[in-house]
Amino acid sequence: MAVTLRTALPSDRDAVIELIHRLNLFEADLVSDRRRDYAAAVAYYDELLQRLAKREGRIVLAEEGGVVVGAMGYSRDEDAAYVVDGVRRHGTVTDLIVHEEWRGRGIGQMLLKEAERLTREGGMTRLFIGALVANEPACRIYETFGFEPYVSIMVKDL
User: Fold this and answer.
1) What is the pLDDT of residues 89-147, one digit of tens each?
2) Cα atoms in the 13 Å half-sphere on the side-chain side of 51
3) What is the CA radius of gyration of the chain?
4) HEC secondary structure over the chain
5) In whole angstroms, what is the distance from residue 132 CA to residue 9 CA?
6) What is the mean pLDDT of the chain?
7) Alpha-carbon distance 24 to 29, whole Å?
């Protein structure tokens, strides 16, 4: 069967939350500030929908045979006034999750290509994505796809 992409519906809520929960567990092994409880994934999903609604966004699902195997949050954003007009408006991949059993099959690349398409469709030429520095596999994949470091966010625990 082929993997297809579609915009998430309210009925996909549980499938998306399950993917978020799996990502939270994975990231909790990388950094100490991630919650492992399922309630955190539920709260994040609700938060994500609110943010995407304000930013011309959506959740795009990768599906095979009726099974959700990946999800991507995508929004259209605008940088501060000091950024030149040609790239001030841009697309943003807010989240990219592929179920661990489906990784290595090009699903993440399909979702990223969709983000590129949505960005171009919106008349924009710049696409942003973020990743935990500790998530080296994701960083490598994004760099292979053509992303390069742009902003470094640093943290100091007090």
Assistant:
1) 999 999 999 999 999 999 999 999 999 999 999 999 999 999 999 999 999 999 999 99
2) 16
3) 16
4) CCEEEEECCHHHHHHHHHHHHHHHHHHHCCCCCCCCCHHHHHHHHHHHHHHHHHCCCEEEEEEECCEEEEEEEEEEEECCCCCCHHHHEEEEEEEEEECHHHCCCCHHHHHHHHHHHHHHHCCCCCEEECCCCCCHHHHHHHHHCCCCCCCCCCCCCC
5) 28
6) 95
7) 9
Q: For each of the domains in the chain, give its residue range(s) and CATH number, in order of start.
A: 3-144 (3.40.630.30)
Amino acid at 40: A
Q: Which residues contact 126 (CB under 8 A, 6 or more apart)?
A: 87, 90, 91, 119
- Specify the pLDDT at position 6: 98
pTM above 0.85, yes or no: yes
Among residues 69, 72, 67, the alpha carbon closest in space to that of 114 is found at: 72
